[in-house]
Design brief:
Layout lengths: L1 H24 L13 E2 L6 E2 L2 H11 L18 H19 L5 H4 L6 H12 L3 E3 L6 H5 L3 E3 L4 E10 L4 E8 L4 H9 L6 H6 L1 H4 L7 E5 L10 E4 L5 H5 L3 E3 L3 E5 L4 H5 L12 H13 L11 H13 L7 H6 L4 H18 L1
Length: 348
């Protein structure tokens, strides 16, 4: 009984010793240096006492708070926990490397479908630089443009943006339809759809000749936004010639008061190169100029003649007939006869 009665007394010093050991092992907070530390950062092993101190520690040092799983551990400190951590790290690495082999999008064929190839071929015949995006793009899934073999013409998926009414509409229209007729289906005071006419009040009250249609210029450098201004009197095919279209054309319709916002970003028209004849003539003039030998300097008189020829725009051709006429002169004939007599004496 005495032994049982004295057992709690024996346990008291042990508990106090453990409490003292716990207090000794913990240090003060490395952030505020006032409270007792309760947490230790897995990355830099700094001690903290509360959540505000943890946030302040990350803000000051830029520490991520994530343990470095590849840090070196001496063999004397290596334990089963380190072995398990390394094993799980290798498993995670294997999953990451195996993920691309199971990705469906990465193993799909890059070749376009037959309908897309047909669309590309006929767009090229219409002098339109059409770009087809991968299937994962939403713009690719929205595109409903087709080529009708029976009618032998393209049907474009057309997107019309009306910024003054904050409205957008999409429709499939043939390439030979005039742009003015396409807009009349939306903004005509009597013939357009009543629901669309109600949403586009700012455009309905504006005459068609006071509306501007613009298309964004694709494949440009960043921060260089440009627009192509389209002609309402021409068909969609004529307006898209020599232009780049990504999947389908997207047209911005603006009223007269807002057209200048787009015209300030109007790009130069794309088409056949201009001044081709002038360029060819300039190259010909350059090639026909007399070449100077190494170290030779052109005289001032010759330089003035070249400048004068460039100003006149014509190349001076030497008078060949006059040179040919000199062959009939007596001097040339006497020289020829003397050379023939010399040859006869040499043979004898």
């Amino acid at each position: 009984m005495a032994f049982l009665h004295n057992k709690p007394d024996m346990d008291v010093p042990e508990e106090e010793r453990r409490g003292q050991k716990r207090k000794i092992s913990l240090t003060s907070c490395d952030v505020c240096e006032a409270e007792e530390a309760k947490y230790r950062c897995p990355n830099c092993l700094k001690c903290s006492c509360s959540l505000p101190c943890v946030k302040q520690h990350k803000l000051r040092t830029g520490c991520s708070g994530v343990r470095d799983r590849t840090a070196f551990v001496p063999l004397s400190h290596f334990s089963d926990l380190h072995l398990l951590s390394d094993y799980r790290f290798l498993e995670e690495t294997g999953r990451v490397t195996d993920r691309p082999s199971r990705d469906i999008l990465l193993h799909t064929r890059t070749r376009h479908s037959y309908s897309a190839m047909l669309l590309l071929r006929n767009a090229k015949a219409a002098k339109v630089n059409l770009k087809i995006l991968p299937k994962s793009f939403s713009r690719r899934r929205e595109n409903t443009s087709i080529y009708n073999k029976t009618e032998r013409k393209l049907y474009w998926h057309l997107k019309l943006v009306f910024p003054q009414s904050s409205a957008e509409y999409t429709d499939r229209v043939p390439e030979d339809r005039v742009l003015e007729k396409i807009l009349s289906d939306y903004v005509h005071p009597t013939e357009s759809d009543p629901v669309k006419r109600q949403n586009l009040k700012a455009y309905v009250v504006t005459p068609l000749d006071q509306l501007g249609v613009f298309m964004k210029s694709e494949q440009r450098l960043p921060n260089s936004l440009k627009y192509h201004e389209l002609d309402l009197k021409k068909s969609l095919r004529e307006n898209l010639m020599f232009k780049t279209v990504v999947e389908y054309p997207e047209l911005h319709v603006a009223v007269k008061e807002h057209c200048e916002e787009y015209r300030s970003h109007v790009s130069e028209p794309q088409g056949a190169p201009e001044n081709h004849k002038h360029t060819t003539r300039t190259e010909k003039e350059t090639t026909e100029q007399p070449e100077l030998e190494e170290g030779e300097i052109q005289s001032e008189e010759e330089e003035d003649n070249c400048v004068q020829e460039e100003e006149d725009g014509d190349i001076k051709i030497p008078d060949i007939e006059s040179h040919l006429g000199d062959l009939d002169g007596p001097t040339v004939q006497n020289a020829v006869m003397s050379s023939c007599l010399d040859v006869e004496h040499a043979e004898q």
